[in-house]
Design a protein that fits this description.
Structural class of chain A: alpha+beta
Distance between the termini of chain A: 17 Å
CATH class of the largest domain in chain A: Alpha Beta
Largest sheet of chain A: 9 strands, mixed
EC number (chains A, B): 3.5.3.9
Cofactor (chains A, B): Zn(2+)
CATH topology of the largest domain in chain A: Aminopeptidase
Oligomer: homodimer
GO molecular function, one term (chains A, B): metal ion binding
CATH architecture of the largest domain in chain A: 3-Layer(aba) Sandwich
Number of helices of chain A: 11
Order of helices and strands of chain A: HHEEEHEHHEHEEEHEEEEHEEHEHEH
InterPro entries (chains A, B): Amidase_Cbmase (IPR010158), Bact_exopeptidase_dim_dom (IPR036264), Peptidase_M20 (IPR002933)
Family (chains A, B): Belongs to the peptidase M20 family.
Number of domains of chain A: 2
Number of strands of chain A: 16
Helix content of chain A: 25-40%
Chain lengths: 419, 419
């Protein structure tokens, strides 16, 4: 249940994260490492070198996912995979994604050093892309590894400069026939270690988050159409003020979301009021909705009832109402067996833990479609992420890595699992 | 009480408005005639020609206000002035401002034709600017005529191209020593005929609006500061969502404004939410408030109480709150004697009328500081103005002109007034 490693195995974790943060470092302390850019390429080559130095067998697949392999005694047994993504958002932090790769690499290296070859093959992966920050598409790395995407999907998607994903991939030296195909059919388990990016662990004083499910998400674009009119000569009773209607809707959204309770979250992140002139009543308002829950039925009913309530508000106010769904992902439960394994590892080390729902999407949800998948979180200071201020304490980072190592040890050296 | 004119005196009113609309005409039917531009200049020269043709003595003052004078038997008696502004907003209509000039010109011309010289001097004015559409300053014409502005105020104010008001004035041929000074000390009454720009007359089925007061206005810029955070990983209870706070404030604003009753109007015309990303909780929101009422005490208490309620909402939500006032004008009552004269003229012609408050600002409020001033409105179809769709029916336009003529007749030919 517990890997025969002491914490010195993870002593260099913070140093490794600091080195990774050099690739794409910005003056203000942020890191920008977008898919297929030079900082991205340099980070992957650096990681390849570190994997090799640890005695792992490395390879890039055609999409640019980097694997480091520790061959098991039974090469036909399903592979146990850990890792996360190497790309960042613009002006992101040094932990989101990078932590799961660095900790996985150190765990696999330490297991090799201490225990030699495992029964089952163990791999660490530095997935090429998860954030969707350069191209309007997320999970390019895990999506290609799990067959959700094929490389041909990169042809029609361009970045802000008009460069297609396919072009950028070729320029970075990928997408070649000679390279390993992306699709993995040999994975038996995927375990991803990540920073929480929320404040639940910090607030509850727990050290490890055990992810039971990754929320489903729905995103809508809502348009309200009223009548743009003179702010001075139009009495309150004769207005069709699209912004006043939006205000009533957003107040209701918040009330309904709070009433639904955790883990439901509902956010209007973008709102535009037209024409946007101080002395003109807004005739049109567009806003977005981002609604998440870990139960599909709850998500469905909340969205349906909220939009129906919005439509009723619009009708009463004489406003035109249109909503369009532009993103819908179902909730993804993590594997109960793997999560139980992680929980027992926390108990054995006497680390406090809590089961929780991930409100953010992760690569693990892609792997969950093709193999048992699990995730564990460590605390994010202040719940801040996607920011230069992203921070997790070195001790927390090492504890997460130790629990990951315990789990990987059980899965690849243990006699019990998946016989 | 009634001018000895039949309605044929105003038969060419629509034609004159159509001709004026040629200056600055746009493909889509709108009119853009900004201060000191070529269309503006052409319109003023056209009007000067029409005034001369009617036998009026014309002159431009240094700011570009155009006067047409019908000299009275007593040249020392205070002058009776009518008119409005010749400039438009961008893509405005053909009635706002232009109507008051055209109708005034036809009324004065008809009175001269029919009645000869009046007892007191009667003038029609085409004021150079009211809208503030080119330069960030409104009432340049009436402001200079009444001493609120001096020409030197044009030096520090530039349009979007960086051209100062003073430069534009000189390029249009004004601002010269040789020209008539702007300030009028000889005006005994100002009567302005205008389209309503609101829907009150149309809704109530009345033909003439008698303006009792022009509202006071206050405009504020409000900034709310919360915490921008991940829309998925931040529970509802741990948010400082600036947009949710703004929604609660705007809902309250509307409720309070409706409760206050007409003529109070309150509008948030512009709202920006930052960073404006669908999956990020807005950390900052800026919005504007435009609040109007015809009683200064009511305006003051409504603004004070509303901002206090906003501040309380912000405190409860843990949001930073700042408000800045950037425009404040007091309500301006119109002259009761002149308004009574207009009301009696409506009665004599059996035109239905209603007393009302002007929710928009007008040149009459500048003149009200230096002489008795009055305004009358005719219906605007659908309450639409500042738009190519601005429209008032020819019959309504003629009726307004007839009431204006009656009033001017009484003021300048009558034995009773201002002896």
């Amino acid at each position: 249940m517990r890997a025969p490693l002491d914490m010195s195995a993870f002593a260099e974790l913070q140093g490794l994260l600091d080195k990774l943060a050099v690739f794409g470092a910005e003056a203000g302390g942020g890191v920008t490492r977008l898919l297929y850019t030079e900082p991205w390429r340099a980070a992957q080559l650096f990681l390849e070198e570190r994997m090799r130095a640890a005695g792992l067998e490395t390879r890039f697949d055609r999409a640019g996912n980097l694997y480091g392999r520790l061959l098991g005694a039974d090469p036909a047994a399903p592979v146990v995979l850990t890792g996360s993504h190497v790309d960042t958002v613009r002006s992101g932090g040094r932990y989101d994604g990078a932590y799961g790769i660095a900790a996985g690499l150190l765990a696999v290296a330490a297991l090799k050093r201490t225990c030699g070859a495992p029964l089952r093959t163990l791999e660490v992966v530095s997935l090429c892309e998860e954030e969707g920050s350069r191209f309007p598409l997320a999970y390019w790395g895990s999506g290609n590894a799990t067959g959700v995407y094929g490389l041909e999907d990169g042809a029609g998607i361009a970045d802000a400069d008009g460069i297609t994903l396919a072009e950028a991939m070729r320029e970075a030296g990928f997408g070649l026939e000679a390279q390993t195909p992306c699709l993995r059919r040999d994975i038996g388990a995927f375990v991803e270690l990540h920073i929480e990016q929320g404040i639940a662990l910090e607030r509850s004083g727990r050290r490890i988050g055990l992810v039971e499910a990754i929320v489903g998400q729905r995103r809508y674009a809502v348009t309200l159409t009223g009548a743009s009119n003179h702010a001075g000569t139009t009495p309150m009773s004769m207005r069709a003020d699209a912004l006043a209607g939006a205000a009533e809707m957003l107040a209701l959204l918040e009330t309904r979301a709070k009433a639904a309770g955790d883990p439901l979250v509902a956010t209007a992140g973008r709102l535009e009021a037209m024409p946007g002139t101080p002395n003109v009543i807004p005739g049109e308002v567009r806003f977005t909705l981002d609604i998440r829950h870990d139960e599909d039925a709850m998500l469905e009913s909340f969205c349906r009832d909220t939009l129906a309530a919005f439509a009723a508000i619009a009708r009463r106010r004489g406003l035109g109402f249109a909503s369009r769904i532009w993103l819908a992902s179902k909730p993804v439960p993590m594997d109960g067996g793997l999560t139980g394994l992680l929980e027992r590892a926390c108990l054995a080390r006497a680390y406090s833990s809590r089961r929780m729902v991930s409100g953010a999407g992760h690569d693990a949800q892609l792997f969950a479609a093709v193999c048992p998948a699990a995730m564990l979180f460590v605390p994010s200071r202040g719940g801040v992420s996607h920011s230069p201020d992203e921070y997790s304490a070195p001790l927390h980072l090492q504890e997460g890595a130790a629990v990951l190592a315990d789990c990987l040890y059980e899965l690849t050296y243990g006699q019990e699992w998946q016989r």
